[in-house]
Amino acid sequence: MKIVLSCLSATLIAGCCALTGCRGGSRSATPTLETPPEIESPATSSPSLAATPASPPQASPTFPPTPASLLHASGSLLFLRDRDLWLAKLDGSAERRLTTGSLGAGYAGSVRDATGHVELYYTSQVARAGVEGPPGGGVFTVYKQSVDGGAPDELFTFRGTGKQVEYSATNASVSPDRLYVAYSDEGGVSRYDLTRRTATRLLANVPCTADTPTARCHGYYNPSWSPRGDSLLVVEVFYEGAQIVGIDPLNPLTGVREFAPKFDYDAASWAPDGARMCLVPVNSSRAVRVVTPDGPSSNDLAPPLRTGLPVPDGVDVHASWCSWSGEGWLAMQYVLSTDPVSPHVAVFDGSAFKQDVPLPAASGARSNAILWLPDGSGFVMVPRQMPGTPDWESYVVLLDGTVRTLPFDAGRVLGVIP
Predict the structure, then answer these.
(1) Could you tell me if 63 and 404 are in contact, meaning their C-beta atoms sit under 8 angstroms apart?
(2) CA separation for the pair 388, 166 (Å, rounded)
C-alpha cells in the first residue's frame, strides 16, 4: 500500500474556514446515514501561517509521447477524468471506468495480499451539499474493488467537507491489513472497522464559535495509514495554516504527536517500510526533512535533505514535494533561491544524494506531486493547481532526464499501483 499524504495543493490552507467550521448559523437537513459510536478525541492545541495566492495560469508544456516499452507493463494508473475515477495499465491498455457520474472521487490506497492479488479502495461523492447533503461538503461512499475487474463492494458512507472535492484530495486511507479505513468527515478523523461495521472517532474538529476564537479553531484532514499499520498521519488545519501530526489509530488516547515546529510542514509521504516519512515544507520555504513516526521531537529535528546536492554555499533549497520509491529511494522536487523557475528532482538513497534530474522549465511555476513508476526508472509528475485554473496534463520523467507524455489521456493522476 502506498499513500502520499497531502492536500494536493499547498494552498489548502487558503479558505480553510470551510474545513474547520469557521462560520456561524445552523446546518441544513442531511440524508439519514448510519451514525456509528464515537469516542472523545484527545485534547490538542496549536497555532498558524498565512496562505499565499496561487500562481497565474500557464500553458501546459508539451512533450514527446512515452513509448510503451519505457513503462512497466504490470503497473496501473488511477486517475480522474471529468470527476470520475479511471484505471488503466501504464501502457494505456485495459482502460476501465470505476465511477460514473461521481461528484468527486479520491484514492484511499491499495493492498496486495499474499497471493499477489491487489484490492483498490476509493471514495466517491454521491450527494451534493445543501439540499442533498450537509452544507459545504456532501455525502461520500467508500468502495473496494479488485484491480483485475469485477463489481465494486460498497463499504460505508459518511458526510464529508467541501475541501475534499475542491482540492481533489484523499479523504480516506485503508490500513495495510485491510481491517480498517481511516477517513476525514465533517466532524474530524475516524477509524471504520470493516469487520464490525462500526466507527470510532480518533480526532475531533474544533469549530469556530462565539466561545472559540479563530486562533484556536482547527480541523483534521487527509489521513494516511503507515505501511506498518501502527501510525496515522493527518493534516491539522487552522484558520491561518496547517501542520502534519501523527496518532496511533488503534489507541488514539495516547495523544497527538508533532514532528516539527508548528506550521513549517504541511504535507508528508511514508517510506515503504513505514519506519520514516518525509515532510514537505509550507510554501516551499526550505528543504524536505526525514523523520520517524516516534520522533524526533520539535526540538530534535533531522537535518534537511540537501547534503550532496549541487548547491553553492549561501543558496537556499526550496522543496515542494517528496515521494518514496518501492526500493526506498527518496525523490524531492526543488528549486534554488537563485533560480526559482528551473525545477529539479533530487534522488536520495537513504540520506545519501544519488542524482539530480532537471525538469522542464515551464513546470517551475507550479509544483508537482511525484509518483514513482513501479520499476523505479522514473516518476509520473502530477501538476498541482488551485481550483478553477486549467488542469495540466501529467507527464513522465525518467531518471536519465527524458521527459515524455503518457501514452493516453490520463487527466489528473491520483496513484500508481504496482
Answers:
(1) yes
(2) 9
Contact 33, 159 (CB under 8 A): yes
Report DSSP letters for 224-259, one per residue. EE-TTSS-EEEEEEESS-EEEEEE-TT-GGG--EE-
Of 356, 359, 349, nearest in space to 380 by CA: 359
Decide if 184 contacts 140 (C-beta within 8 A).
Answer: no
Instruction: Please list the residues that pair with 194 across neighbouring strands.
Output: none
CA atoms of 142 and 193, how far apart (whole Å) = 13
Identify the CATH number of the domain in which residue 116 sits: 2.120.10.30
Give the count of alpha carbons within 13 A of 396, CB side only.
Answer: 27
Q: Please state whether beta strands 76-81 and 412-417 pair in parallel, antiparallel, or not at all (unpaired).
A: antiparallel
Number of other CB atoms surrounding residue 340 within 10 Å: 12
Rounded CA-CA distance 265/246 in Å is 13
Give the total number of structural domains in the chain.
Answer: 1
* Residue-averaged pLDDT of the chain: 76
**Secondary structure letter of residue 401 according to DSSP:** S
Task: Note the pLDDT tens digit of each residue in 201-256.
Answer: 999 998 888 888 887 888 898 899 999 999 999 999 887 788 899 999 998 888 88
Higher pLDDT, 371 or 304: 371
| 75 burial via Cβ count (<10 Å: 0-12, 13-18, 19+) | middle
Report the amino acid identity of residue 360.
P
For residue 34, the Cα-to-chain-centroid distance in whole angstroms is 27
Helix, strand, coil percentages in the chain from 3-state DSSP, rounded to 5: 5, 40, 50
SS3 182: strand
The domain of 386 spans 4-417
Task: Give the closest residue to 241 by CA, choosing from 25, 23, 19.
Answer: 19
pLDDT for 270-293, tens place per residue? 999 999 999 888 877 788 888 888
User: Quick one: cell of 272?
Assistant: 515503504
Residue 411 gets the label, from left (phi > 0), alpha (psi -120 to 50) or beta, of left
Asked if 206 and 20 count as a contact pair (C-beta separation under 8 A), the reply is: yes
- Report the relative pairing of strands 76-81 and 329-336 from DSSP bridges: unpaired
Reading the block at residue 332, the C-alpha cell is 524531492
